[in-house]
Amino acid sequence: MHPQIQSVFKVMVIRLSGRLARNACVGARRSVLRLAILATVLMAGPAIIPAVAAASPTAGSAHAQLFGAHPVQEGHTSLPGGHFSYALVPGESISDGVVVENFSDQSLDFHIYGADLRVASGGGLTPAQPSATKHGVGAWIAVSIPTFIIGADSQFTDNFTVTAPSVVSPGQHLGAIVAAADVGTTPQGDTIEARVALIAVVTVPGIAHPSAALSSLTSSSATPGQVGFDIMLFNTGNVLLTYSGLVRVYDGAGQVVATLPLSPSAAYVVPDGRTPLAAAWKRQLPQSGNYFARATVTVMANAKRVATLTSQSLGLSFSGPPLTTIIGLALLCGLMLLVATWIFRRPRRQNPRRTWLRVADSWRPL
Q1: 0.70 exceeded by the pTM?
Q2: CB 297 within 8 A of CB 308
Q3: End-to-end distance of the chain based on CA atoms, in angstroms?
Q4: If 0-12 CB within 10 Å is exposed, 13-18 middle and 19+ buried, where does residue 122 land?
Q5: Mean pLDDT in each 10-residue stretch from start to end of the chain (366 residues)?
Q6: Three-class secondary structure of residue 305 per DSSP
């Protein structure tokens, strides 16, 4: 090969190798920068990225409202929402009625019965099943026509009698009038029953004794990124109670760092009943240190405040990574960012294509 051609060939190979090396260097610089940014985000993540609790979608009702019920004397009871309220001395009876309306376009078979009220597993009240043994107001209710059929877009009025036992403690006693109907079947062939219930409150004259108590406040961290609080409210009196409550979290200096509402809120608590209350600290967890929490519950009877209950102080302790580890990670991330910046700011070498052209321009064939 001619020496000049060989020289030009060598220059082309060198420039091509330089281009490949420079592309590899650019890729390396990009990788270093990405690594530095990723390390920074990973270190700062627990401090700047709030925990997000994934919420489960709410399942829609399988059926629209097909029927409803209301008292015959709706609007004349002392409880909101069209419930029943009576004042009876021991052994006294009272008659009343309930109107059941069929909103659907087909006939429905109904079952009307009295039921005791029970505390639901998640809080609040629920009527007992018709087959359950009745110990309270459910046993005091006698329905005139327990079963009947209502045509489409029609209604029916059923009468019932409430009789207080001859021996009964003074105070408020709660039950319910329940209207139930079969509204369909599941794909597996099981019957779907829908129910509506109206509360029946029977007040027996005597000394009203509104009273309540709290269990110990407890905490749990079963859900990552948050602290849960649980407490139980007991109705130790003889009247129906409602309430509102919250949990306050304090730091070591006694400053409030979080105020959390207790749920469920404004529910009924029947005499001798109880309801579980809960709160969740969904904010970003605090830094290392000692904290404490207290629950405060305001109890009401007949819409009047009767007591404010405060739980014991619950100690909380949070620990984080050692300070030396945090400083080391911060220095490492800073160093990686400086290296990435320096690589990007280095002066670039001359364009190999232009250099090759100059070499090519200076070459002359023999």
Answers
A1: no
A2: yes
A3: 12
A4: exposed
A5: 42 41 40 29 26 28 73 76 88 96 94 90 80 93 96 96 95 94 88 91 92 95 84 93 94 92 87 90 74 96 93 86 58 76 64 49 50
A6: strand
